[in-house]
Amino acid sequence: MTTTRTGFSNELGRYSQMARRAAASYIPNQETSRYLVAPATDYLARGGKGLRPALCLATCEAFGGTVDDALGSAAALELFHTAFLIHDDVEDGSELRRGKPTLHRSFGRALAINAGDGLAVFALGALKGNQRRLGRRLAARVWSEFDFMALQTVEGQAIELGWQRDGRTDLTPDDYLDMIMKKTCWYTTVLPLRVGALIGTQGAVDPTPMVRFGFFLGAAFQIRDDILNLTGSPDLYGKEARGDLREGKRTLMLLHLLTAADPIHRHQLERYLATDPHFRSDALIEEVFALMQEHGSVEFANEFAQGIARSAAVAFEEAFVDVGDSPARRFVKGLIAYMVERDR
Amino acid sequence: MTNRRDLVADVQLFGLFSAAAVVERYAGMVDRATSNDRLDVLPSMPDEPPPPLELGRAARLTDAYLRFLATTTELVESRTERKPGAPVIERALFPAVRPAGSSATSVWVHNLTTQSSGGLHVEVTDLASLGGVVIPAATVSVSPAKIDRIGPSTSREVRLRVDVGEGQPSGHYHGLVLISTAPDEPVALQLEVLNREEARR
Question: Which residue in A137, A173, A313 is closest to B68 by CB distance?
Fold first, then answer.
């Protein structure tokens, strides 16, 4: 028996809504200045997929816990995620987020950055609440999982930004995978799975297999995200088309093209990457995209992700081997196809 | 002329192979980072420091990059025809290890066909250095050594672990992973045993 796509979407929406409500409850809007509350609640109010908290809540349920047990952690995840998004948008100079102007365009850079800081503080409040529900030891374990995740995430972001600043063109797919493990996978999939399983079992599970499943799932997600940035519809995807190319992000497609291009095109590409992003015209971006299409770079990344997704299916069975069938288990399994096939 | 199916399979395998190597590096890292708050029910931490991975990583990276290049060039036209239904298995590289240490890696057996494979056995040969020094196959555990079936278009992981003796000379050791249903496609298995000075770095 499998979860149907409609059923999957409904479940995703249900988990996501619960987590967003819980996240909003940790933002003290009564006695706090509107200069903080308004920008801090803006992205949360725009919706979003809610994949991370949904994965955490469903994993907790699958391992025998309740949604309420993991709601504080799921809320903290959503708050951290929103904080990361705001700061990422500033760092990348992005124009759109979830189909609307980015926060720094709506509120100005200073208030946007401060709102990101504020959301990280609110996330700490959500985690503090775990102690009452989960007990001191389990709450401390969950805290240490978040602590490790946060370090990985900011380091991953630093690596990506550093590559762009230094004009690095000597990177391999291994470097890319290492970077997305830190930047994306840890907080998108690995941590939600590990924390969900720990809470669901009151700390009785060894969460090690979740690293494998979580990374395969998260890597497939990130590569799909990179592909959608190149080829997806901005209406569905919610960000400006080919924004990664404009920023010079070292995606798998770009690394492939750097390797596959003949010396002349490679030289052109290196000059493009050495140019200040503000001077990368639409025509130049389209030229690079055309080269990617010509050399099969998107197709390469797609198949690369498919291989990882196939491994994710195996790793899922390994990580959930002792977990009985349930709607929550089927939901987590359904995420594998969703991550690779999504169009938004 | 490029064989598209082979190309797709190669790229998918490349993705799988590269991702598995990343997991190997991070699985121990998170355990160490969260160990202060571990609960008693969780496995205890090993006393010894983790095996040095950098040399293994460099070799793996080189290997992965070569595969990457291979996918962007014309594929070999005279590629050996695979027997229908025979699962595909890839090469394996143990992270470098010091004497008296152990090292683990995985190989994946892929069934790229649309039918389930039959049962198969996986075994490992002795690992031998160029100087003729041997690490016996008996010191390499294979789990699972027997696979009843692999579903269509799915893969199974086989874990390999080698325990290196205290007096094992340093050097590069080479062996083979043998899969019963693909006897013509042994997989190269490599291990570097570090000398004591390298192990201290």
Answer: A173
